[in-house]
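Just scan this pair:

***
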Amino acid sequence: MKTGVLTGGRTLLAMVRDSYPQLAPAEKRVADLILNFPGELPGYSASELAGMAETSNAAVSRFVRRLGFANFEEMRRLAREERESGAPLFLLDKSFGNGGLDPIDRHLDTVSENLRKTYGALDRTAFAGFIERIAAAPQVWIAGFRHGYPIAKYLHWSMVHARPNIRLLPRAGETFGESLIDLSAGDVMIVLAMRRRVPVTETLISTAMGAGAEVAVITDPGYVAAAEATWVFRCESRAKGPIDDHASVLVLAHLITEALIARLGKAARNRLGRIDDLHDELGEL
């Protein structure tokens, strides 16, 4: 029987993501529902889940078996255990908006837990390799959409202090064809792809990889398509309220720039010094 927070070293969400490419369309609707709202799974029956996914009980049963569970109750038990363990994606805060935990304390708890989970799961070897590549790449491209765009802008702004040839996407007034004409093999693209992604996200990733660039995706634990990227850094972003928390994404962006400056050493210090010289010459600060 499959019980425990980890099953064979994998969480329920990891099991769903791993099985996703082999699922039939009706089963994928069940998977999408679980990936987007895992904390609600313990409260539903198989019939209720089928109704919300607009599919049949038989499709839910096939989905459960594809994951390796004997029945729906086994899968729901694992989801319940993960929620009870404190995993942010499985938390359902019933006190939200009902005079429960003070909003400041609730926010602090959410941010702290998301940061702890994000950095606890960060593959340090993969991250070090990623920093090596963005230090050496001819060009680094940074792309973000919707709420990911302001963070992409911040990452672009901070990384230009460390090295030249940092490009931000999308750019005002340009099509992707006009922007990507200079993308080439050996470049690195960083894509911020948090929850509720726009369809062009996957097109951009596949286009970059098709051009021979390496791709790093900064995303949430529920994104399946990111698996084909060179690096995937998953940030916990679910909150105990209606708006996702992106503190861990912003902190990761800060970490990337600091690690890059440390890796580039003298070259980065010289660039920072020249930027300060220009500030003085132009009287900007």
About this structure: Residues 1-6, 92-96 have pLDDT under 50 and may be disordered. Residues 103-121 form the longest helix (19 residues). The radius of gyration is 21 Å.
